Amino acid sequence: MRRLSDILQGLLIISAFLLMPVRELRAQYDIDHFFIRGQSAMTDGRYMDAVNNYSIILRIDDSLYEAYFFRGIAKYNLGDFAGAETDFNKAIELNPVYTLAYHYRAITRSRTGRYDEAIADLDRAVELRPGYYGLYFSRGVTYFLSQQFEKAVEDFDRFIIREPRDPDAFLNRGASYLFLGDTTQALKDYDRAISLNSSDPEGYIRRSRIYYARYRLDDALADLDHAVSLDTANTFAYFNRALIRYDKKDYRGTLDDLDKVLSREPDNSLTLYNRALILSQLGDYDHALEDYDRVLDINPENVLAYYNRSILFTETGRYHDAVEDLSKAIELYPDFANAYMNRSYVKNLLGQHASAEDDYRTAQAKIERYRTLTADSAGRAAFADTSRKYDRLLALDSDFARSGFNDELLQNRNVSIDLKPMYRFVIASGVEDEGESMPIMLSNRYRDDRLNRFAEQVPVEVTMSSEPPAAGAVDNSRLLDAVSKEASRTGDDRMFFAEALIESSSKHFNAALSCYDKAIDSNPGEVFYYINRGALRSEMIDFLSSIESNVQVLTMDNAGTARARVSDGAVRTYDYSEAIADMRSAAALYPSFPYTYYNLGNLYCLSNDMPEAIEQYSKALDLYPALAEAYYNRGLVLIYVNDREKGCIDMSKAGELGLSDAYAVISKYCDRE
Predict the structure, then answer these.
(1) CA neighbor of 483 nearest in space, from 460, 462, 513
(2) Least confident of 27-41, 224-238, 447-461
(3) 134-173 burial, b for 16+ CB within 10 Å, e for fewer?
(4) Count of CB atoms within 10 A of residue 78's CB?
(5) Residues near 631 by beta carbon (within 8 Å), at least 6 away in sequence
(6) Is 129 left (phi over 0), alpha (psi -120 to 50) or beta?
(7) pLDDT at 415 over 80
(8) How far apart are CA 593 and CA 294, in angstroms?
(9) Is-above-0.85 flag for pTM?
(10) SS3 465
(11) What PROSITE patterns does the record point to (predicted)?
(12) How far is CA 128 from CA 64, 69, 295, in A?
């Protein structure tokens, strides 16, 4: 199912181009050309391409508020809400009466849970353009999300007066009525939405929930059967149908529906939990335990999963495991009287009678305290209620605006993400650089006379890159033979450097290192020799870790990036000091070369010195503000050290500079309400 904010996005993002006033043609051809390309990319859903084109426009003329606005929409669709808001802010700064910028900034702020600011933006937009009724829809959504349901109804009323055939407005007003406790009006709105669009499963799913609440199970089941027939991939429909089938004691049908959900959403902890309960009731303890294990992998703070798994452990004679689970449940919820009671029982089975007696007394004390609580506070001590059963299926609440089960799940976010690699000279692949296909004035390519002069003097064609040369780009064996003979004959440091490049491209690390040593001995003042030797030394460590089945990456847990875990559980830490020394030498020889500091950032990160890594990336960006990889890697480190806001801003900038991988990171670590 869709969230109200997602419904709003679908309505308004698509219509943005229709609502946008026609921009006056500008004198410069390049601007018009990139505007057309940007709008075409937006229409096709190629939002990264759109960001790139609007960024080019803003390099030409940073006073164009429309370019900021459209780039903000593209960033929003990429999940980069911080970046989108920054662009909307700039559009408003340049044009304080730009209604659409207020509107979309409000959508963005609402998406990130800043409802008061969103409503203020929408109020301002309504003042500027009271005849634009889409604003009332958006404000109704925001009022709903901020739980101001009466105001939400009022705004949806205003919208429906002008747009009486919009089914989404009735769905949203129905949800608002539902939270106000008016199921009759909610049902009427859902009926109306279905009559306006009978091919949308959304209305049937929502209406089924009201039927279910009224225990009209057959009507609810009929609606969900129809919803599934309209959309066989709708997991929310299957989930709700599973609840109804369970109440009708159709346990196999329930499992079938839950299986369908999990086939599409294998980490849906709510569904896994419910399936575990049913499997337990059917006596399939092994598979039930597997589901509880997966639930706790996803959400290690799920109290009921520990509690119910302990019951299975007790049933199967695994008493120590049962005590451990019950202890964890108590740790998470110290007032859980039933957990104390069950732990007392299991401890008695283990012969731990004194400890069992202590648990029993604690449970009784908590039960007595629970009984003295007023009705208003009883919910806070629900786990002390010994009359309550904890083996019932868990249903979603009446918030029909949820998208899937996002609010019920705590997804496992301990995901490893590679740093972007270090820069060094590599043998050129012969492939034309994409940056050269655009006008020189628009390219972000770093230009350095010293670098260019050095590259021209190397006897093979080279380029400064963070990526390895393309496979088969050169005939390594023949080229190596020719260069090696010339290096031996002349002793020219450039020849030794070229020989090192060829050897390293074939993973002949020791031979390459020897060649770099010879080049540096011959010409100790050449900065690029140190950069390449330092990068090679780091690459050798990475290669060593890979053949030991380790992966050295920046992880989002607290393990530390310099640590590589091996299969026997040991931890090995690698020494990057020689590589750091080479980069430091390069920085001393040529302090204004940004890639040296970028490389140092990587090396300090791999050495688990995060503050120094951040400082080095910052130095690189001071020298070269368009170095997207430096924003990306600094963003990862900032997220790692829990400075998520700054890290996500860096990721947004990396994406803006054309690094599309940044948006995958943003979607994982920055899209948090």
Answers:
(1) 460
(2) 27-41
(3) bbbbbbbbbbbbbebbebbbbbbebbbeeeeebbbbbbbb
(4) 22
(5) 617, 621, 650, 651, 653, 654, 657, 659, 662
(6) beta
(7) no
(8) 49
(9) no
(10) strand
(11) TPR, TPR_REGION
(12) 20, 17, 49
